[in-house]
Amino acid sequence: MTTTAHDQAPAGLEGGRLPWRVGDLVFYALTAAASLATVGLVVWLSYKVVAQASGAIQKFGLSFIWTVAWDPVKQNFGALDFIYGTALTAFIALLIATPVSIAIALFLTELTPRWIRGPVGTLVELLAAIPSVILGLWGILVFGPWIAQHLEPFLERRLGFIPIFSGDPSQAGMLPAALVLTLMIVPITSSLCRELFSRVPRDLSDGALALGATRWETIRGVSIPYAGPGIVAAVLLGLGRAFGEAIAVTQVIGAGSGFPTSLFEPADTLASRIASEYQGAVSGLQIDSILYLAAILLVISLITNVAAQAVVRRFERSRGKIA
Amino acid sequence: MSSFDVTVRSAGLRRRRIVQRVLAIVATLCALAAVTMLGIVIGSVAVKGGSSLSLDFFTKPRGLYGVPGGIADAIVGSALIVGIATLIAVPIGVLVAIYLSEFASKGIATFVRVVLDVMNGIPAIVVGIFVFGVLVTGRGQSALAGSCALSILMVPMIARATQEVLALVPGGLREASLALGVSRWRTVLGVVLPTVTGGIVTGTVLAVARVAGETAPLLFTSSIAANAVNLDVSQALPTIPVAIFVYSESADPHEQALAWTSALVLISFVLVSSVMARALSARSRRKLTGGH
Description:
Chain A has 323 residues and is mainly α.
């Protein structure tokens, strides 16, 4: 793509001493109002979601976060099991998705002829377009049974001495949830990483190659350090996605509770518990507790996303804009 | 950051070549695995959903228990809810993008962009909970509440996509129009915006494709509905994603079949529109940047 400096110049309509006409002012006010409303909506949403939970916050206080309970009969609720489920499934998903995404990005930027890049890149990104409810449907009826019949017995035979791979195989549990999340994260992080690797200055990698480095050594010594902070941001964005995914996880995780050590056992995440209780909640306190879970989820994902944005901005300042 | 000294590694060229080979194979396998998974998921949906696909499926509402029927009620509900969400989100998204690229100072533009990106990262289920608290509590579920929830998800997508294509419009175009004495607002609406219609349509289609499959925001806003064709948006309407969600957890093979066929309809819509949007985007970008 060739763009001249002229095209790149900021396109503002300040226009020096050009007079502002009435139409201009109205139009300006309209666009500014839309932007203000959008920013206001984010603030309102954050405030409202936390404020809605005030009933449960007053009843249980902050100890809700480290309490293990979800007992509608005894009216006792806590969130720790779900925080555990959220953290563990997201962690496993990232553990698989990060190296795979980086590998896919490298495949698409460094290792393939141009004519393969386009189609393969598009196909990987289409994986992100599949609605989560369909991944969940496939997860329950196709993937879950396959995991229970083949993958889990295999892991148990080979790695059963590690507690997370022990126990009876089951169709619904943390392993299928983590793998479905992996499928959702990989297209996002790999397309971001691809963007990052394509920004590595040509002369840096050419320099390394000219010094006799192999392509892999160039990637390890030049591309990955250069793209490093951006990769961190991509992983954080993937993490935010994994935390927030409700539907597909609800469908495959099996609505368990407690702290299962084995990945074969059912559990629940913050988002999946909220989704699964949409019709079941009867008492006011149970609804309040669901709202409390939503508030915790919002805070976690805001922190993750703001952190990712901060990393991206720092990266852009030092290395130029990402797309 | 410690520098990586590539020159020291001159020994063991054979070993280095092998490492290079192995890693290239691993990367290729990863890409292949991702494409294969896409194929497996689409293939499963096509095989399991294709067998009971018929015209009745699109034209008849769901029958009572055991009676075969279609999914017309959910198709109508989804179309209405997503359509209204689009009508809300497109003007707001485009106005925000115009503000960002034409009027805002650099600092404010960066701030609003960060807010949009953060907004894009808010979990859909939390958006559903928010709309539940604002519009559903006390009033009951409605298709309009569902549309509001979906439009909150769409605004940042449309705004960012539009803003990105607006940034590609050459500044000279604006200057030429202003130099002719055209006012700012007419410059934007008459000169700048028409050059990026393709980009706006692409962004909108991608946003529609994404929210058409969103289930989480609808669970709390428009999920408890009768399975009949209904055009009243002040009531909760059935939708395809919610139908798939409910039937996917059913043990009844009839309902599972219904879930698979609905999934086939939804995935076809989503994939076709995504691919079309991509093709359109490549074309309009080529036009804007002139060649390549």
